[in-house]
Amino acid sequence: MEVTNQTILKGLKTRLDKAGEQWADELPNVLWSYRITTRTPTGETPYNLCFGMEAVIPIDIGVPSHRVRTFNFDANDEKLKYSLDLLPEARDEAMLKVAAYHQRVFRHYNRRMKPRHISIGDLVLRSIEAAEKGPQRNKLSPLWEGPYLVATMVKPDTFKLKDAEGKMLPRT
């Protein structure tokens, strides 16, 4: 959802350079362009996944393309019923493509990751969420606190921490 919002904001900012402060007038155009653009993870447009057919862009109606000139209402109804029957399969295929895309991104990210082994005596940072200090946080709050000293290893990748004064920290 955040990626969608960022894409829409980017489209609005691009169009606001030309339209001034009339962002509400440009929003339908930006949303339309988002809905008919093919997404990389699925290989489909959001419009196609929702309605089971490709959208006809307004310019195709004003300046007739081959698709518009050869349009047949009767044949279209049959093809529409057929494509709507296949829509669940198209959505399943899109989900498989998304899963494959996530695996490719995961592999690409992990290719550059270097594992770090933590041992007793190392200095580490602690996640503020893990320390249960969430309620007073906001967007600009830090995500980590520390540094803390690793005192003991409870089990692999689980440690007890000490602060600078040597006091053991709870819930580490």
From TrEMBL:
Gene3D superfamilies reported in the protein's UniProt record: Ribonuclease H-like superfamily/Ribonuclease H
Record GO terms (molecular function): nucleic acid binding
InterPro entries tied to this protein: RNaseH-like_sf (IPR012337), RNaseH_sf (IPR036397)
Highest taxon listed in the record's lineage: Eukaryota
PANTHER family on file: RIBONUCLEASE H (PTHR48475)
Protein name per Swiss-Prot or TrEMBL: Integrase catalytic domain-containing protein
Source species of the chain: Dendrobium catenatum
